[in-house]
Design goal:
Belongs to the bacterial solute-binding protein 1 family. This is ABC transporter substrate-binding protein. It comes from Saccharopolyspora oryzae. Keywords: Signal, Transport. It is a single chain. This protein is α/β, with parallel strands linked by helices. It has 2 domains: 219 residues, D-Maltodextrin-Binding Protein, domain 2 (3-Layer(aba) Sandwich); 161 residues, Periplasmic binding protein-like II (D-Maltodextrin-Binding Protein, domain 2). Helices cover 43% and strands 13% of the residues. Strands 1, 2, 3, 4, 5, 6, 7, 8, 9 and 10 form a 10-stranded mixed β-sheet that branches. Strand 1, helix 3 and strand 2 form a beta-alpha-beta unit. Helix 2 packs antiparallel against helix 18. The longest helix is centred in the C-terminal third of the chain and has 18 residues.
Amino acid sequence: MRSRFPARASRRGLLALATAATALVAASCTAGSTSDGPQPAPGPDEQVTITVSSQFTDRELDVLNRVLDGFHAQHPNITINSQGNQDDDKITQAIRGGNPPDVAISAETINLGQFCSSGAWQDLGPYLQRDRVDLDQIVEVSQKYTEFDGKRCAMPLLADVYGLFYNTDAFARAGITQPPKTMSELTDMAKRLTEFNPDGSIKVAGFLPVLGSQANHPWNWAPHFGAEWMDQQGKSVLGQDPAWQEMYRWQKELVDFYGWDRLVQFTSGLGQQYSADNAFQSGKIAMMIDGEYRTGFIEDTTPDLRYATAPFPVADAKPELYGTGFVTGTIIGIPRGAENAGAAWELVRYLTTDTNALVELANGLKNVPTTTAALHDPRVETSEQYQTFLDLFDNPQLVPSPPSPNGSAYMKSTEDFSVKWQSGQVGDLGAALRELDGQIDAAKALGGN
């Protein structure tokens, strides 16, 4: 099984996502116009073919297509042309070229701000209002990451939730009986679980503190310190919010424990995150942060691995945050200039509000359904490890990354800074974070926002 999510950003490259901003802005100028008001659904005798573009391939595309077949069975007059392996760049190119798909599915939630602000994806508000769709049926956090600046240009399809994975055999050997709940506990357990080779190199890391490696990213860690990205005006506040310094100083303690040179050597020998020799699955890391999709990887490739899951630990001074976590997901919308917007909306509404469709997608793709009804449906296939993430998704404290008009640019800048910090290239942390704020705000200003 292969995830399309968050770490998605690291897998495909945040730089590519950041540079997509210019293309999306251009798309708003070159795509076909949208008529005022929502387009009507085709009549039962009106034969329509709609194109659906998604990033899915292979088995995952098969899962989507089975659900699309279910829609066609209910709407035999609407034929679906499903096109897989279409990432945001390809879809944007189609919009710019005046030949957009009728429905676009994106695995890059962080691009939502671009889609909405540029007009590349249509505002779905008129459709929701016309058909009296109750948005409260959608889990609150998913409502948040599908709206930007008062405009809802997407609906949530499935979600990813991040938590703690830990090797229960390693815990037993170290005499640890419970997962950590605070960062100091995580630090202590990481040291107890770590094993060194005779030459001093790392054999097993209790927890890998290297940002940019595996699923370790600033956006995955930040919610557990209560760190804020932006103020209400959209200005970067990394240098003003003390939680960011707390997060980086916590990381530095573990980096110093291992030694940066040792960590570089260790990470260079780890398997790819989305391969069968993943570091956690191969026993190289005893604890890690990752999304619910990892349970599917483990089931497929290392079913004998003894492990458990829990909420990821939080800052010692903020125990009330325990149970929070980073969340993102797949989003779906109607591109500007879509030829059959009325029929497209029928499919979008079906995929995002029909319980049967969401349960089938969730079971096939091993991601969390985004409506309350589907989340609690007894047909959702679960396990003790997977249930942790279903429970987490019920937590109103879950945190998405704030959407921005220039997409993931601020996230890439923060990860670039993190690489310098952890390798000892940053002196005054507070001053460096304030400088980073200036860089992020300047980049956003250059984009015209």
